[in-house]
Amino acid sequence: MSTPLWIFDTTLRDGTQGEGISLTAEDKVKIALKLDAMGVHYIEGGNPGSNSKDIEFFRRVRELNLNAKLTAFGSTRRKNSVCEHDVNLKHLIESGARAATLVGKSWDFHVHTALQTTLEENLAMINESLAYVKNSGMEALFDAEHFFDGFKANPEYALAALSKAKEAGAAWIVLCDTNGGTLPGEIGEIVSRVVREIDAPIGIHTHNDCELAVANTLAAVAAGARQIQGTINGYGERCGNANLCSIIPTLQLKMGYGCVSDEQLKSLTGVARYVSEIANVHMPVNQPYVGNAAFAHKGGIHVSAIMKDSKTYEHIEPHLVGNKQRVLVSELAGQSNILSKAQEMGLDVNPENMKSREVIDRIKELEHQGYQFEGADASLELLLRDAYGGTAQAFIVDSFKIMVERTGGAMVTEAIVKLSVAGEQVYTVAEGNGPVNALDNALRKALVQYYPGIRDIHLSDYKVRVLDEKDTTAAKVRVLIESTNFKDTWSTVGVSSNVIEASWEALIDSIRYALLGMDKDEYVPEFVGGTHGLSNH
Amino acid sequence: MSTPLWIFDTTLRDGTQGEGISLTAEDKVKIALKLDAMGVHYIEGGNPGSNSKDIEFFRRVRELNLNAKLTAFGSTRRKNSVCEHDVNLKHLIESGARAATLVGKSWDFHVHTALQTTLEENLAMINESLAYVKNSGMEALFDAEHFFDGFKANPEYALAALSKAKEAGAAWIVLCDTNGGTLPGEIGEIVSRVVREIDAPIGIHTHNDCELAVANTLAAVAAGARQIQGTINGYGERCGNANLCSIIPTLQLKMGYGCVSDEQLKSLTGVARYVSEIANVHMPVNQPYVGNAAFAHKGGIHVSAIMKDSKTYEHIEPHLVGNKQRVLVSELAGQSNILSKAQEMGLDVNPENMKSREVIDRIKELEHQGYQFEGADASLELLLRDAYGGTAQAFIVDSFKIMVERTGGAMVTEAIVKLSVAGEQVYTVAEGNGPVNALDNALRKALVQYYPGIRDIHLSDYKVRVLDEKDTTAAKVRVLIESTNFKDTWSTVGVSSNVIEASWEALIDSIRYALLGMDKDEYVPEFVGGTHGLSNH
């Protein structure tokens, strides 16, 4: 039997303190449902005393019957006051949450400097506030803010703060490394001491200011902490909170603790990506366990080894966390990368045959020209499918024209596109925010009548990189386009000395790839009779 | 006296194994110069045996007289062969680098599965290859690949591999957690054991697959490792390498080790951002120590506390690593910075006067719209000069028009510009590689007759970034343009929902800034009489 741990997710509260993270009540409800399905034990929903958005969230989430304990966050009562008159505590109790986390001071410096009160009054604030919340029928948790800094400065006082919380009946005492400056060795030592001296369930809450939040959490668990506070993708104030997406799999797969079920662990990558979508924050490609490159192999030697046995360069099996292996094709890679990629796509490849040699030569030639396929999986897939004869041309572009004009401060951008689709000529014009956007709009306008599904696709990122800086007059540019249909994301590449041409190439690849997905089996256009009006398919 | 450590940077080698990281030889030279100035002890430049780009880099960098030891990377010799016939080792020796790192196997599983040779042959490969490189006059380092996995599987064999390297005269024996799956406790224990048994200087090389690369490096140092291998911003294969930007300050500011000088440590944030710019990889805002939000405070309670004493919510003083505090509620990064910038330019600023308040409000407003002046000093300087009345408009653009057309595979891009210069109307047309290039050409053609010096200026880089916006149809783009006159380099910025408009803004700023330099004292156009012919000034 593995030792059970309690996962306390604070994405919806501490996570939103991160720069650029802002969640509506609706966003929070969506995320809470995902977290609940993944099996976290506590979901800290926000601070109902601080804003109406959080009050709305708590109202809506009550109807959802979550398995997780919904938790509201607030501070201990104001100094020189009583709990009964504290508006913040009142909101907390009225939130309808099953549990409340109260944050209080455990560092004497903070009591003097930030609170500007006496050490005794702070202890009374902790004790009375927790007892008050508990008496209201809620489970009461104590977040001992700056506990580690406090312990280093004045261990007796820091421990006294914890004792006061325990006396008040706190269900959990959570040790916070609020400033994120403590090292794993110190965390381990101090948590051991607390576990010996305070007879209450202990939790850990760390921040990532030294890139050590995960290590600090693991050190605390090894020393006896049993509740883990953190956020999805490590969102949070400054450098973020402890990243549950790294902590849960390490505890469960490598250290023998039980956090969630094996099935729930497989949802981790999906949850991480979902939350990053909702928060509209780009997920770093190299994020551990759940990132798109977490099991991506680029070096040629690495690739030829993983084809023999993936254990050679993978610390766990990616499917355990719902992620998958990828092979990146780049100039650093050998042909083994390309062949494994083609196999992954179900193409019949044989390293010996002429076709495979031709494809590899073609990719090498393109890379030499400045193409880079490691960030453009979809372009590579099209190239391989074309080479092995798997795709037809869904449409042919006869010509296009773009006009950008600025007179008197107003900017107009238009694109005209002439296409052949399903034996017909289509001629469309559209405006846009720029030449590429106008082209994209004109293309969609032409194609939507044949492929209505194209409406769900949009460009999510657009990057331009100038190649060969030395020879500036003939400088080439590489354009990378990322597209999404809210479910999948794919990337395409174009290279040219003309930025419009490079963008155009990437754009056409993006749309061709999307069409591939829409009608993969037969690849017959969803042609809707002779009319060019919008179809209802 | 603090214990000295040796910093081994492998951004240019292992860093480029990261997805989306691709550096030209020119990029690598630029980064090497920055790393050298920051005081790293080894700079691993690449694998001269693998591609011509790395060979070119090694050729160019030899002329730079770096303080750091330039290091070339390669593998131990091929199995069942001799060093004298090994092309890879030949390239290594011919690279002109002062040191060579040879990677070899120390995990028996890998010897069988990946190398497909005998355990004995692998030991011979290690021993002979290192001795061969050392005999050529280079310092020889041994990277023991998968050492920790190897030690756990077969400690005797893993240690035997190290002994063979030591026998051959390796200057450093570097223990690699290649798959990034080892935990800090295991790292500490195993390194202690190695330090006891192998009498040679020990290095550590970790990967971030469990988000533990930094913690693992620190654990190894605490156990006796003295060389640290890592990359700037943690770039590298899969989840990346150990991030030197987090490791160096923690070792130096918190653990009492000596890595670089205090002054060099202050360049850390600048180097991190420079490398991310060159690599064209977005730096996560919450990156520890060097990220833009690393010392950014959003929570209201936090902000009021840091106003009393910044130690309340900051684990170190940000200036120690060249970063700065930001308060997100007021949006603006250090108005004192802006005022000191204006003073630096010789402008008469007084924080009390109305003008200064207006400028700060204007910059705040622009930052809110997505402008970023950190990478666009020239735009900031123009903005400040304009505000304090220091500049006249050298020219006024009445209108412009761009046409891009593609028919039958040929691409034509033209721009027409109508300007007022020195009281005259100028109307020019030019072709280009793309709309921005055509605009640039038409502008120059119009201005060269008045400012002949403009001939020496060209765009050296052009970057487009889509800003994170929830509303994707109205997504804004930020364009950064870098220009050079072969002596100086300056950067300008433009933001708009239209990429051409954003480019146009940055372009106009670039030219205005150049003209400022040309005629700084009086700012009178070098007007050459009534003719529009080329002048010889």
UniProtKB/TrEMBL annotation, chains A, B:
Pfam families: HCS_D2, HMGL-like, LeuA_dimer. Keywords: Amino-acid biosynthesis, Branched-chain amino acid biosynthesis, Isoleucine biosynthesis, Transferase. It comes from the Bacteria. Its EC number is 2.3.3.21. The keyword Lipid biosynthesis does not apply. The keyword Lipoprotein does not apply. Belongs to the alpha-IPM synthase/homocitrate synthase family. This is Citramalate synthase. The gene is cimA.
